[in-house]
Amino acid sequence: MFEHEETVGISAMSCYLPRLRVDLRQWCEWTSHDWDKVSAVTGRAFRMAGPDEDVYTMAATAVLRLILDNGVDPCRIGFLALGTESSTDNALGAVTVRGMIDRELRRRGMPSLPRDVEVPEYKHACLGGMYALQGAARFAALDRNGRQAVVVASDIAEYERGSSGEQTQGAGAVAMLVERSPALLAIDLGRAAGASAYRGPDFRKPAARHRVDGYAAGTQRLSDFPVFSGRYSAAAYLDAVTSAVETLWAADTATPADQLDGIQGLFIHRPYRKLPQQALSFLRVRALAASPARHRELEQLCQGCDIGLDDVLAELRVEPDLFGYVLAGQQAPDPWPATAAVSSHLRGQPAFRAFAQRVLGSGADPLVEVGNLYSASLPAWLAAGIEEAALRGVELAGAPLLAVGYGSGDAALALPVTAVEGWQAAAARIGFRHALDNPVDLDREQYEALHDRREVPGLALHPWEQFTVDRTGTEYGRDFQDLAVDYYAYEY
Which of 223, 258, 385, 437 is deepest in the core (most CB within 10 A)? Predict the structure, then answer.
């Protein structure tokens, strides 16, 4: 453990979720899906960005709330990072968010951000927000003037109607204030561990897909729907997350099983409700296999599903070349069939369910209302979990927590975090549950129109205390061009 005064971390968090909501029970009725299965695997609802919202408006709204709700002095900010995979401009990064914030701060009689603020954008599928957080922490740790950093993860997850990913859509943004001697969560940068491996076609958004016949045939608009393969992506997720976490474990003298047992909370990228439980059970079996003193416990689990202990131990050495199967034109097999079987058996055990509830439970319930937020998914869970712990009176100070980000099939990042003394005051200002207030449920006709970017019939939505797209430029002359450039406003 490290001393508070020597640390860098998060001092405040703020959230923005669009009010437009799709109830998945109703969606199941529209699409003839099994509600029991969808609710167990995915959740209860997802949020959608409104017709006048985009990734930048959501990000700026979250950042402005962060500044106002926490009394942040804009003059102390030296770094503003945006993590997203849904940006609509290939030239700019967080400077678009900066522009909105500056204008609104000045309108309120407050100073704008300093001229020398860095404004990068981080992109790596759903890992962009965590990469941005790590970059901000490095900035705060090294800045000679002790300035603060602001990170905002903002995304819009969309899938083609009728696709297997349609029920996992979502939209939202989470902003974080990062500085030395944090008031909420300390980040142990020295123990952070990553993993990366090129996965070829796993969850991609190649620009040329828009020009291919058959892409997004069910919609009339230029769309940002991804190209993905479910089983391939699931194997890549387990491989990347496991590699990052096991790299972190390897740097500690305690056994992997003991380290996992000691975690008070595990916050891991969750594109849908069920995946973190699958990841936790997989990590649990791997941790037992890597801890010889716990092999008797693992052997008993193996016997419960007719799997040989030696088969699980042998899979510790497996380093799957998932992309190699793609290049060979083959369907990638399950690289760890024995481990997967024992993991599935483990999830049915009462002791594991109690363990999963302890480490995954905090903040998990409100997340089933928002859907997949891509790069904001993990920050949203962290915000919801810390806020819930404060509301329930759970003492987290000094307790080890682990945040594991993941992006596409290619990369993962494990960040050890710890709540600092007095964390409850900052947690009380997060406002995640408040961001869920006053939803506007869409009926089928409205959902399909909004999804296809047609005029939405009967939509009574009045933006309030948020940024919106005010207009879009149309000029394309020789001396001045702003074609398709968005201009923003703040709505009261």
Answer: 385
Residue 470, pLDDT above cutoff 80: yes
Provide the mean pLDDT of the chain: 95
Give the strand pairing for 486-491 and 466-472. antiparallel
Residues 211-251: tens digit of each pLDDT: 888 888 777 667 789 988 888 999 999 999 999 999 999 99
Distance CA(33)–CA(17), nearest Å, equals 26
Split into its structural domains, the chain has a count of 1
Q: How far apart are CA 55 and CA 356, in angstroms?
A: 33
Q: Check which CATH number belongs to the domain holding 188 and give it.
A: 3.40.47.10
Query: How far is CA 401 from its chain centroid?
Result: 16
Neighbours of 261 (CB within 10 A): 15
Strand 265-268 and strand 400-407: the pairing is parallel
Kindly report the number of other CB atoms within 10 A of residue 479's CB atom: 5
Separation CA 282–CA 276 (nearest Å): 10
**413: its two tokens:** 């990042």
Report angle CA 336, 337, 341 to the nearest 5 degrees: 120
Asked if residue 2 has pLDDT above 90, the reply is no
